[in-house]
Amino acid sequence: MNPRKGTTLSDHPYHHGNLRDAFVEAALALEPEHGPLGISLREVARAVGVTHAAAYHHFASKEALVLAVADEGFTLLLTAIREPATRHPFTGRMAAFFRIVTVGVEYVRYAVDNPSRFRFMYGTPPLPPGEGVSPIPARHAEVLQLFADAVSEAQRENVIAGTRSDRVAAQMWAQAHGLATLAIADALDGVPRGTARRQSASARRRRALDLARGAMVGFLVGARPQDPSWRPPGVS
Fold it and tell me: Bigger pLDDT: 148 or 229?
């Protein structure tokens, strides 16, 4: 839902205890129309149905609100990836192979299912002077570590080569992020936004996840050890 001028996100008033969450919800609802940096605290307050001054009880500036939405998005992203990446019946090389593919696919899945959150996460401004330190660099490090942990396991199991897990993880993350960004821009097949040939949302989602699986398997094959006897896990 994109709130318009004069409308609110709810027919009932928000209480002070959950007003902060209401501002985050409103910012996400306004994002498709304005972009993460195009919203204002005044518009968000109007969408929630409170005064402009009420926003400043929770956020010192628009930038602080944007960062709060982004920070929450990273929390949800990390949870969305960790759970399926570690919940599987495999062991050894197959587990390492599965984890690499799952981390990349779930990253893309999160972006496709939460495009506004994703744009907030990677479209955040610096905080104005005196408003503290942005949490985003630390969040980026957490995401990189998640990829690095999967890469380290794959290296231990001789699924991929190398010892610099951080470098390989950055390459893997970049590949997943590029695909995610193209997917939420409706740009995967070169089909312009809004044309008559545009696929349904469910078809675009399936396409993005299929490409993510292929990209992660291709990444694994490309990073395999230089050993003529090497085979993907499960292939004799």
Answer: 148
